[in-house]
Amino acid sequence: MLIIENGRLIDPAQNLDGIFDISVDHGKIIQVKPRERDGAGKAAGRRNLSKDLTIFDASGMLVIPGLIDMHTHLRDPGHEYKETIKTGCQAAAAGGFTSIACMANTNPVNDNQSVTEYILRKARHEGCVNVFPVGAITRGLNGETLTEMGELKGAGVIAFSDDGKSVKNSELMRRAMEYAKSFNLPLIAHCEDPDLVNNGVMNEGYVSTCLGLKGIPHTAEEVMVARDVMLSELTGCPLHIAHVSTAGSVWTIRDAKSRGAKVTSETAPHYFTLTDELVRGFDTNAKVNPPLRTGEDVNAIKEGLKDGTIDMIATDHAPHSLLEKDVEFDYAAFGIVGLETAFPLSLMLYTEGILSLPQLIAKFTVNPARAFNLRKGSLQIGMDADITILDLEKTWTVDVSCFKSKGRNSPFHGWNMQGKVVATLVGGKMIL
Amino acid sequence: MGLKSKDLLTIEELTVEEISLVLDTADSMKEISTRDIKKVPTLRGKTVINLFYEPSTRTRTSFEIAGKRLSADVVNISTSTSSVVKGETLKDTGKNLQAMNPDLVVIRHPAPGAPKILADNLSSSIINAGDGAHEHPTQALLDIFTIRERKGHLDRLEVAIIGDIRHSRVARSNIYALSKTGAKVRVFGPHTMIPPFIERMGVTVCATLEEAIKDVDVIMMLRIQLERQGDFLFPTLREYSRFFGLDLEKLKMARPDVMIMHPGPINRGVELSPEIADSPYTLILDQVTNGVAVRMALLYLLIGK
């Protein structure tokens, strides 16, 4: 048995915020008990450890449900030189994540049950966190034919997405929503009109004008958000909008939610911490899709996080090797690694006063769990003991060479952070 | 005083003093090309490599002649014959060139920022001879040199740049060069060719051709890239030349002493009518002549000491 004692527990799912002792046995939470304020002597007495009892003294620490990331790219199968299920899971654990959803754009694409089975088998053997595969909407991400969603669900996928690109054909997207609804699984929409993107490499704006780089207008994202939200309302299929990056997307999603649409959304830390100004100097680590936007967009994203328009913060962890990044900006791959920096970066929303700690933690725990029907994201008795323990006072400097991820493509290298993960438990097992 | 950087990558990062230094140095270089024996020993024993990833006649030849008139050894690499076709990265190509100890590499590349990759990885000097739609600093320097030569000064001049501003590195470099030296710049073209927020670079966006060319001292016409027709930027060359091209009739709206410039190569009958192209208004061939002097000045300033 393990007791995590004297930490500040915040569990938004149960509305808990206080000093608690948490007992874990056989991988499950068995007790969550408020700490008695005058019980200092009592605590000392409890340190009579038997060989079956471990005490984790979490005094001064924050103890929260293990973080959930609904948007990672594990690159396995097919691009193991960028990341593997093993290294991706290690990166997740280092960042405090105990559950991650991995996108289908591997090689082969996760568009049939044997690929899903491969991912889950490998995750069981080599992965230290829970892996939830996302299946493709269309075969080979070709945008032409539906995948066998029923079989994919049977094999273990928790949602469908052609992430990496939009389903361009609106009729196909409509039918995909209707068909997915038959199996009670949501769709995750990567929103980007490929014609409007037109080979752009960064946000279209003053900076792209200065640099002569081809721009991607914010409208490329927004027209697709609008289309997919409307299709969700037409079909009644729950829809999750991935990596929201523009003010216009926030407005559209806010409107849809006020009408009662079954829409949820996520953004990634780089969309509320960075702007397209970072592309000056042609640093390919600032190349990401959707692209870094403007200060106005950043403010709108923060506003959307504050009022709940944006339900979750996900990483869009997109590892690449130097082969894809150490080249001309035009030729570099899109993507930023995020697992090991996401939560500390998001803590800035708390220090800036935009979100309370429980609100922030909800965006990494109960919100994704509810939207995707995962029995995760809370420390209720009986749940898997997936727990993250943080030191909010600890300051550290991001050094990409220390990442567990194979990907080093982070624009946050050298940033000073406050707040560090000190322990991650999955199923009661300390993995960090 | 010299140039602060070992490289010339953009006009954006040059100071007014550095720009003046280049122009003044080019003034004294220009005479060399009029001599019977057009060669001085200034850069004897220095090696200059022209690394061109895009086709170019004028710029590459101009750099080659500039280098040879200063007695540098000039080597031309065009990518159709190099190991670039075998898939070598720019960084690797740069490091291999560095291993042969050149003093300066001139690079033209379709990707914005590519010259910076060489500058960051090579100890030799790098000159950007055009990187995508980003900058073409030597072109802007020779353009303002040509204007200054005619007008005697640059400050308070009014300059119109007309055409595909969005895709033009010449426009960007000239906007920086002219603004820094005190000239005022207006731009004009169909809205498909005007990039967003261009006015924040300090230029005025004109609504009509008349507004663009009325009372200006200089008109810079940009080349219309014929392959852009597939990008929905304009419907036909015929319509483009009618509404956005310049002919003698429309030129009546401008001042009689207006100067017309073009970075070349011109599309006769598209952005410029043939009559204008051959008229005394144009400085197109002066630009080419001055290009050699300006590039000699830059080679001298970067590796001559």
In short:
The complex is a heterodimer of chains A (432) and B (305). Chain A has 432 residues and is an alpha/beta fold.
Protein described:
The complex is a heterodimer of chains A (432) and B (305). In chain A, 31% of the residues lie in helices and 21% in strands. Chain A is an alpha/beta fold and 432 residues long. The longest helix of chain A is centred in the middle third of the chain and has 18 residues. The termini of chain B are close together. The longest helix of chain B has 20 residues.
Salient structural properties:
A: 432 residues; alpha/beta; 21% strand; B: 305 residues; 5-stranded parallel β-sheet; 4-stranded parallel β-sheet; 9 strands; 37% helix
Q: Average pLDDT of chain B, to the nearest integer?
A: 95
- Return the string of H and E elements of chain B: HEHEHEHEHEHEEHEHHEHH
Mean pLDDT of chain A: 96
Measured between the Cα atoms of the first and last residue of chain B, the distance is: 11 Å
Please summarize the sheet with the most strands of chain A. 8 strands, mixed
Question: Ranges of chain A with pLDDT <50 over ≥5 residues?
Answer: 41-46
Number of helices of chain A: 15
Oligomer: heterodimer
Strand percentage of chain B lies at 5-15%
Global outline of chain A: globular
Helical stretch count of chain B?
11
Largest interface: A-B, 19 and 26 residues
User: Strand tally of chain B, please?
Assistant: 9
Which residues of chain B form runs of ≥5 with pLDDT under 50? none
Calculate Rg of chain B over CA atoms.
Answer: 19 Å
Main sheet: strand order of chain B: 7-6-5-8-9
Terminal Cα span of chain A? 18 Å
- Percent helix of chain B: 25-40%
What is the total tally of β strands of chain A? Answer: 17
Radius of gyration of chain A: 21 Å
Class based on secondary structure composition and strand pairing of chain B: alpha/beta
